[in-house]
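pasting for the record
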Amino acid sequence: MPISSSLQGPRLAPASGKPARQLIVILHGYGADGTDLIDLGRAWQGQLPDAAIVAPDAPDRLPFEALGGRQWFALNERSPTEYRIGAEAAQPLLDRFLDAELEKLALDERSLALVGFSQGAMMAFQCGLRRGTSPAAIIGYSGLLPGADELDGVASESPVLIVHGREDDVVQDYHADAAQTAFARAGITAKVHKLEGLGHSIDERGMVLGGRFLGNAFSK
């Protein structure tokens, strides 16, 4: 029986016109939706022509409808405990979505890459590190690692890329260093790029770094 998922969002078929050989899932930040980041996938299609790309909308609307947008989990206290509990609670739904997408495309886990921005980066780390088979790559833009002190027993072979603006005033860039330290303790390879003059955003430099990282990961 096919696995079902309630998440939906914009999609890009492989630019080659051939059956997908890879799946890139892009997870948006707090208060946005999938349309906010699908252009990142479009920018990568030239170098990854056989990749299917999807940017699912997070499951919940923000509590104040006037603000618009969606959330993977609620942010009230913005504390390490809230990040960990929220990401853990949202993980099963995202796992089901990933399972369903891979099944639909007849791809295995090593054909999967997870990319996230801000709260989406939290979800990419939370979910990607705990998949039964490690994804080909995990990329976190302007995010943080939830439960950074609780990676005991996490055994992931996924290469990780962290890209963060040095002028980020929403998620300060020390979170990139904290994540790299936690990954190193857990034996997980993580590359960090902290970009001068960049705030809480993804610029062309980050886009290029991400595309190159994905290309290298999928070529192995």
